[in-house]
């Protein structure tokens, strides 16, 4: 199967293994104290990144059947939202150089509506039209320059950015996308990982599985317990480490968890020496200049968390935590302060930090 590739947000999750309690898949001799640790585990590549699925108790049909399930879920999403595959639905709309109504599927219509809704909740910091600015700064499909773009170039790109540059129109049961300018392009890569994790998780739930972990790079969905009978654990990565390193462990507690980070994808202007983050503020047209390195969001769906995390990263830690407290969201930020990374979080995030033996299922 040909895999479609999407630009995805920086993935900053580490699965915690035997160095932390409760991540060993092997059955132990004393089965009276341990769950039967028979698992079906797969991993692979999708959307330009990696995925991993772990079903405790085993999956009917084994690895090949589980791989087929996952790949089918990912293919459906990529067929809808990929901007790299010219045969994908969104790519075809982007290539449609007209302001006439363009019919789209109900699935794509819902994804766009839901993503826009989440973006509006956070002052439009998540904007699916931001692609021209991302490309201009060299973080998209365009080759990166040695220097930052000019004010004139940024102003020109901003003419195609904003929720007012397109609309969805409904006629009966049909949905239509309409560009206000023929050159407007939409990019849903910011929610690709979340959509993928949700799709696989929901299919497993539908089939009756109760203990599993699904990871699509920076988006995770988990339910039940792992092979040792403990709640699943994840780790937020240390954003200042040159190699993947655990910063803080968290328990997923049957929720979706996503993280967006600004510290792996950046470039340095050779003339001025300024370092620019890949997190572009759609309102200013410039990369963010604050010291927030990552934002972690916990929600019922990986899609919702994924739709929020990049925009919250653009807003920065102070506004993110203020928004989280006001809206009752479990959020955590890592900032660079006084020469070191500092974790802050909303009070709603605290239960997920309490990883330990108390989370073992009796």
Explain the overall architecture:
The protein has 362 residues and is an alpha+beta fold. The protein has 9 helices and 16 strands. It has an 8-stranded antiparallel sheet. Strands 1-9-10 form a 3-stranded antiparallel sheet. A 3-stranded antiparallel sheet has the order 4-6-5. Strand 2 (39-46) and strand 3 (49-56) form a beta hairpin. Helix 1 crosses helix 6 (192-206). 47% of the residues are buried.
How would you summarize the topology of this molecule?
Layout: E1 13-15, E2 39-46, E3 49-56, H1 62-81, H2 89-94, E4 102-104, H3 106-121, H4 131-136, H5 151-158, E5 166-171, E6 174-179, H6 192-206, E7 212-216, E8 219-223, E9 233-237, E10 246-251, E11 256-261, E12 266-268, E13 275-277, E14 292-299, H7 302-315, H8 317-327, E15 331-337, E16 340-345, H9 350-353
Antiparallel strand pairs: 1-9, 2-3, 3-7, 4-6, 5-6, 7-8, 8-11, 9-10, 11-14, 12-13, 14-15, 15-16
Key words describing this protein structure:
disordered C terminus; three-stranded antiparallel β-sheet; single chain; 362 residues; eight-stranded antiparallel β-sheet
Summarize the model shown:
The chain contains 9 helices and 16 strands. By secondary structure, the chain is an alpha+beta fold.
Describe the oligomeric state of these chains in a short phrase. Answer: single chain
Strand content: 15-25%
* Number of E-type strands: 16
Largest sheet: 8 strands, antiparallel
Residues in helices, as a percent range: 25-40%
* Class derived from helix and strand content: alpha+beta
Question: Can you give the mean pLDDT?
Answer: 86
Largest beta sheet: strand ordering: 2-3-7-8-11-14-15-16
The H-and-E topology, N to C, reads as EEEHHEHHHEEHEEEEEEEEHHEEH
Poorly predicted runs are 1-35, 356-362
Count up the helices. Answer: 9
Q: Please state the CA-atom Rg, rounded to the nearest Å.
A: 21 Å
Query: Quick one: overall form?
Result: globular
């Amino acid at each position: 199967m040909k895999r479609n590739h999407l630009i995805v947000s920086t993935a900053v999750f580490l699965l915690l293994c035997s160095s932390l309690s409760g991540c060993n898949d092997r059955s132990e001799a004393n089965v009276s104290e341990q769950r039967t640790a028979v698992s079906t585990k797969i991993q692979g590549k999708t959307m330009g990144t990696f995925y991993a699925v772990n079903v405790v108790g085993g999956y009917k049909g084994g690895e090949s059947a589980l791989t087929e399930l996952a790949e089918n879920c990912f293919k459906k999403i990529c067929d809808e939202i990929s901007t790299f595959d010219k045969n994908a639905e969104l790519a075809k709309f982007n290539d449609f150089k007209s302001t006439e109504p363009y019919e789209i599927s109900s699935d794509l219509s819902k994804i766009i509506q839901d993503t826009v809704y989440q973006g509006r909740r956070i002052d439009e910091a998540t904007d699916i039209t931001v692609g021209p600015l991302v490309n201009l700064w060299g973080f998209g499909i365009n080759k990166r320059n040695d220097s930052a773009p000019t004010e004139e170039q940024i102003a020109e790109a901003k003419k195609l950015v904003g929720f007012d540059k397109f609309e969805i129109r409904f006629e009966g049961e049909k949905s239509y996308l309409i560009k206000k300018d023929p050159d407007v392009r939409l990019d849903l890569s910011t929610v690709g990982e979340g959509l993928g994790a949700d799709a696989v998780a929901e299919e497993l739930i539908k089939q009756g599985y109760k203990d599993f972990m699904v990871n699509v790079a920076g988006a995770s969905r988990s339910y039940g317990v792992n092979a040792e009978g403990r709640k699943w654990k994840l780790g937020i990565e240390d954003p200042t480490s040159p190699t993947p390193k655990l910063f803080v462990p968290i328990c997923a507690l049957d929720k979706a968890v996503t993280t967006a980070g600004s510290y792996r994808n950046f470039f340095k202007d050779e003339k001025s020496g300024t370092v620019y983050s890949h997190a572009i503020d759609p309102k200013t047209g410039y990369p963010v200049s604050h010291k927030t390195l990552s934002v972690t969001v916990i929600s019922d769906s990986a899609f919702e968390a994924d739709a929020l995390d990049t925009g919250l990263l653009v807003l920065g830690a102070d506004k993110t935590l203020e928004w989280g407290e006001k809206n009752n969201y479990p959020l955590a930020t890592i900032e660079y302060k006084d020469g070191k990374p500092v974790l802050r979080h909303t009070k709603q995030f605290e239960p997920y930090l309490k990883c330990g033996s108390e989370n073992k299922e009796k």
